[in-house]
Amino acid sequence: MTTAGGDSSLLRRLNTTAVLRTLYGGGPFTLSELVRATAVTRATVENALAALVRQGWAAEVPPAADGRRPVGRPPRRYRFRAESGCVVGLDIGAHKVLAVVADLGGEVRAVRQTAVARDVLPEDRLAAAWKLGHRARRAAGFEADQVRAVGVGATGVVNAAGTVLVSELLPGWAGTELPVELGKSFGAPVAAGNDTNVALLAEHWRGVAAGARDVLFLHAGHEISAGLLIGGRVHQGRHGAAGEIGMLPAAGWSDTARAMSEGWGEDIGALFEAARSRDAKAVESLRRFCEGLTHGAAAMVLAVDPELVVLGGGLSRAGDLLADPLRRGLREACLFPVPVAVSELGVEAVALGAVRLALDEVERELFEMAGVT
């Protein structure tokens, strides 16, 4: 890391960044471990640590209070101060807003949820989101100026700039510039994406798709949508519309979701209970839903050839009642069998993915030094 010549101020920042990156990635670390990990001199690491402690990013770990006294002077150990700030993850949907607040290490500190009507004005939906985000932030024990970044998963086609380009569900929602509107309320950088893509990000971060590189994510509920992970990265496409196969009438997803809603409305839990009790109407409803879901899913599997299909959204609560027929349908329709896994993240999937979006923003801020990452 250390080089001869050059700007000493830049070199100092680069070395400090190397130490911070190491602390952020794990720990706690002794001084000697940091020297080995960063490949800089001991004096350089000591100076970097002093700066990071002064800035509030690092802290010395006190000796264990277990009564044991080690022989000689114990080595000093340092850690990243995840509690020095927080991020807010928001799931802004048609019927609810859900907020998750996590510290800078990604540990969830608070979760809050509120219902919103489908026909509320966009400004009222956004107001509900920022109010809920701050309520969750207070519950987590953070001050407003400790919010380092905000992530948002929103219904509709959302482009790379965080603007909603298309919304079939919400009147007036298209054209909403999420980073601009919510940035005013939080005073922090805002990153936004389509809720399905953001939920897929959560699955890859902490869910059943962790470690996978090519994944088809099916977000199934009162609406059906899909997200794609290709080469370990969420694929959004030119306009943020990748995976919007439900727009194609031949896929049948709109009719499939509508038929489910007409039969059971909002009470999806009752459908699952009835199906497990072998109620004929419930079993038939799930069968028809899965048949419709399989048509579009098979087309995407044949196009992408993923290593895994993940079933998420509200209907993932059905578990194998839905996953088993989906497996059979894909096996019959596709060239090769593909594993189908059921999400375990529940209703928090989108908000957790939004937390990951926000943490990515924080990491860019922490680690970008004079254009060097």
List the helices and strands and how they pair.
Elements: H1 8-24, E1 29-30, H2 31-38, H3 42-55, E2 58-61, E3 77-80, E4 86-92, E5 96-103, E6 108-115, H4 122-139, E7 147-154, E8 157-158, E9 164-166, H5 178-186, E10 190-194, H6 195-206, E11 215-220, E12 224-230, E13 233-235, H7 253-264, H8 268-276, H9 280-304, E14 308-312, H10 320-333, E15 340-342, H11 349-367
Parallel strand pairs: 4-7, 7-10, 11-14, 14-15
Antiparallel strand pairs: 1-3, 2-3, 4-5, 5-6, 8-9, 11-12, 12-13
CATH domain fold name of the largest domain: Nucleotidyltransferase, domain 5
| Percent of residues in beta strands | 15-25%
Query: What is the level-2 CATH architecture name of the largest domain?
Result: 2-Layer Sandwich
Helical percentage: 40-55%
User: Quick one: CATH superfamily of the largest domain?
Assistant: ATPase, nucleotide binding domain
- Overall shape: elongated
In total, the number of domains comes to 3
What is the helix/strand order?
A: HEHHEEEEEHEEEHEHEEEHHHEHEH
Cα(first) to Cα(last) distance is 13 Å
* Sheet with most strands: 5 strands, mixed
Which strand order does the major sheet show? Answer: 6-5-4-7-10
Q: What would CATH call the class of the largest domain?
A: Alpha Beta
Average residue pLDDT? 89
- What structural category arises from helix and sheet content? alpha/beta
EC number: 2.7.1.59
Family: Belongs to the ROK (NagC/XylR) family.
Organism: Streptomyces smaragdinus
GO molecular function: DNA-binding transcription factor activity; N-acetylglucosamine kinase activity
